[in-house]
Design a protein that fits this description.
InterPro entries: Ribosomal_mS35_mit (IPR019349), Ribosomal_mS35_mt (IPR039848). Residues 204-324 form the Small ribosomal subunit protein mS35 mitochondrial conserved domain. One of its GO terms (molecular function) is structural constituent of ribosome. With 386 residues, the protein is mainly alpha-helical. Among the domains are: 4-131, no CATH class; 215-295, Double Stranded RNA Binding Domain. Helix content is 43%, strand content 6%. The protein is built from 10 helices and 6 strands. It has helices spanning 4-15, 44-59, 76-87, 96-110, 114-135, 172-194, 246-256, 277-295, 328-351, 357-367; strands at 28-30, 67-69, 215-218, 232-236, 260-261, 266-271. The strands form 2 sheets. Strands 3-4-6-5 form a 4-stranded antiparallel beta sheet. It has a two-stranded antiparallel sheet with strand order 1-2. A hairpin with a 4-residue loop joins strand 5 (260-261) and strand 6 (266-271). Helix 3 crosses helix 4 (96-110) and helix 7 packs across helix 8 (277-295). The longest helix is centred in the C-terminal third of the chain and has 24 residues, at 328-351. It is flat and about 140 Å long.
Length: 386
């Protein structure tokens, strides 16, 4: 048989593990394995009874959930007492082998002196204090800046206390205002430092040639994705297309239908059925080419069909009547009247009869004229007046 010191050393090593003596109080964990062999015995009659009961519950549709109530033992003696109490129950939580080992070690524990027990207790406290940092959950450091001290990015979290307002920050509206200022400053920096660099890519404007009759228009949302940015619009004037006779131009207008504007004499078409702008532009180019080929077809010139303009609403813009224009005689008369008025004012100014409004106001301010007294009924005077 081993000596008492070796037995107690083995017992202390067993009870000083991370999941042993220092466990959180009232910790409830659904588990099938328990510390200190607290699970039902995995052998013998108790284990067989457990299997039978579990099979019976499964047949009746009941699920057995086992809970773990971890105990907190201050010394090995308390653990031995716990094993002894459990062995007396009808369904003990410890096996027979554990009970025999506990009874053997209990004798060695009782043989120790009081100072030896105290030394073992202090050693247990030291081990528990050293292992406390390992059990303590990792908390986010509030005084850190962008988690620079953290080596592993997986441990960077803002879930702990992220909703706590500690009165050391501005509200969400203030942050929104600061974000708006940051956006303004960003565009200001672009305008100062980056936009001038685009001057080297500037090209001299060249008007389109006579054979470039198609005018394409695109829609852009400044780099952002939008369903409408695929749309392409093309405009052209039938009279600008070379190689067409007057009959063919009229036929082209009739083929365009409601897309022809009789006021501007322009055909306008658009396409957005495809995903990209280049595809829609190619489709419009092919469509215009087919319309020109159909207009050149001499089989049917549509000469017996009039040009339908009912789709367009003509707007009449009133113009200033020419009869109301000023005649040269009327202009000369108004100019003579203005000169006569200026001559009269100059004469009054020299004689001192012309009143200068600015000087009159300045003189009134300098004299400190008081406001004229007004009769006020009794009891209706404003506060402060007697």
């Amino acid at each position: 048989m081993a000596s008492a010191a070796n037995a107690l050393r083995l017992c202390l090593r067993t009870t000083s593990q991370t999941q042993s003596l220092r466990a959180p109080a009232s910790a409830v964990v659904a588990s099938t394995s328990r510390s200190f062999s607290a699970t039902p015995a995995q052998c013998g009659k108790n284990y067989i009874d457990r299997l039978r009961k579990r099979r019976k519950n499964k047949e009746h549709g009941q699920n057995e959930v086992e809970y773990e109530y971890e105990q907190n033992f201050n010394n090995p003696g308390e653990y031995f007492d716990y094993v002894a109490r459990e062995s007396q129950k009808e369904y003990p939580k410890v096996s027979k082998e554990e009970v025999k080992l506990a009874e053997t070690l209990r004798g060695d524990w009782d043989a120790l002196q009081q100072d030896q027990r105290y030394e073992l207790g202090q050693r247990r406290k030291t081990i528990s204090a050293q292992a406390a940092d390992l059990r303590r959950p990792v908390k986010a450091k509030r005084d850190s800046f962008w988690n620079e001290e953290e080596q592993d990015s997986e441990y960077i979290t803002e879930e702990i206390g992220e909703d706590d307002f500690e009165e050391d920050d501005i509200m969400a509206m203030g942050h929104g205002k600061l974000e708006e200022h940051r956006e303004f400053r960003e565009y200001a920096r672009i305008a100062v430092w980056e936009m001038p660099l685009l001057a080297q890519f500037a090209k001299k404007f060249e008007p389109p040639a006579q054979d470039q009759v198609l005018r394409f228009r695109y829609t852009s949302y400044m780099g952002e994705f939008h369903p409408a940015d695929r749309k392409v619009v093309v405009e052209f004037c039938p009279t600008d297309i070379q190689g067409l006779t007057q009959v063919q131009r009229e036929k082209l207008m009739k083929l365009a239908g409601p897309r022809y504007n009789p006021e501007k004499k322009v055909i306008k078409m658009s396409c957005e059925r495809f995903e990209h702008q280049a595809q829609n532009k190619r489709y419009l180019g092919d469509l215009v080419q087919k319309m020109i080929e159909a207009a050149k077809d001499p089989t049917d010139t549509f000469a017996d069909i009039p040009l339908d303009t009912r789709h367009h609403k003509f707007t009449v813009k009133p113009k200033f009547p020419k009869e109301w224009y000023l005649t040269p005689e009327r202009k000369a008369q108004l100019e003579a009247e203005r000169k006569e008025m200026m001559r009269i004012d100059q004469t009054k100014r020299l004689n001192g009869a012309l009143v200068d409004g600015v000087l009159a106001i300045e003189a009134a301010k300098a004299a400190g004229m008081e406001a004229e007294a007004v009769m006020i009924p009794r009891g209706q005077a404003p506060p402060g007046r007697r």
